[in-house]
Amino acid sequence: MKKVTEKDLKYRNGDSGPKYMIRGPSIDWGVFVLKPGQKMGAHGHAKTEETFYFVHGKGKMIVNDHEHDAAVGDAFLVEAQEKHDIHNTGKEDLKFVFVKCPYLPDDKIEYK
Q1: Long-range CB contacts for residues 17-26, cutoff 8 Å, separation at least 24
Q2: Which of 21, 29, 71, 112 is the most exposed place for a label (fewest CB within 10 A)?
Q3: What single string gives the DSSP state of each residue in 68-102?
Q4: DSSP 8-state assignment for residue 6
Q5: What's the pLDDT tens digit per position in 3-40?
Q6: SS (H, E, C) 29-40
Q7: What is the DSSP letter of 8?
Q8: What whole-number distance in Å separates Cα of residue 95 and Cα of residue 53?
Q9: Is the pLDDT of residue 44 over 80?
């Protein structure tokens, strides 16, 4: 058993970016904050699927260059090999939970 508390962990960029809650052995998950106007950054995964659940704010989920509105309560499953990005289109922080499975920390495809 492992317990973590979100307030005890730090975002990668200080007040935004990913905050990993649990890493391995079978899943990788955490929370992510984007400030107004920020983008997550287009990427994909060769073998990993990723689920996103939106808990605050509003934005755009972009999968394979198709835009979808993302609001509180929305969930998206992105399959392996699908290019994806998230943009904060609102006036407040956009916060979402992400879950990647299986746990393959180096499974990332970068896009420009």
Answers
A1: 18/98, 23/103, 23/105, 24/103, 24/105, 25/103, 26/101, 26/102, 26/103
A2: 112
A3: EEEETT-EEEE-TT--EEEEE-SSS-EEEEEEEES
A4: G
A5: 999 999 999 999 999 999 999 999 999 999 999 999 99
A6: EEEEEECCCCEC
A7: G
A8: 9
A9: yes
